[in-house]
Design goal:
- With about 180 residues, the chain is an all-alpha fold.
- Among the domains are: about 90 residues, Death Domain, Fas (Orthogonal Bundle), CATH 1.10.533.10; about 25 residues.
- It is about 75% helix and about 0% strand.
- It has twelve helices and no strands.
- Helix 2 packs antiparallel against helix 3.
- The protein starts with a helix and ends with a helix.
Amino acid sequence: QSYCHRLQHDMYFLTSTSRLNEQVVDKIVLQLNRVYPQILTNEEAEKFRNPKASLHTRLSDLLKHLQKKGDRHCQEFYRALQINAEQLFNDLPSRKILKTPDPTEIDTDKEQYMLNDRGPVFFLACFSMAAGLALFWYCCNSETQVIGRARRILGFSPIIIGRHVRNICMLYLEDIPRH
């Protein structure tokens, strides 16, 4: 995408209220006037720095003027914007499009946050729940004769799980053969 098209795309964003202040616009105009090759002549620079005109009007006129001059002029504007207002430069809509050219691409920073926002306690709780359900299913399966082995395993459960949980499991295992 050419710089002129990018500037046309970013024009509304740049000219909206309180994005660029008077000082930053003056710095950009001065830089465009002093760089090699000279983008703005002295007369043009005076016109775009005129304090009698509103900032919105001057900025809109500057952007339109640069678009008429060509791609090189628009590129120099972006360079001046980056030097004088880097945060605004990074927030430009055209920059966001350039950063993610493929809309199906996964933003790895966001994905990493999404996977890690629960923390280790959540993981341990889910793992304990899954292990408990697996043990429960294995012990309740009528095809296997594991009740005796399960009692031996649960006999060591104060080491692994709490005493109250062990008592509930033992009562359940004692109750199964009666059914």
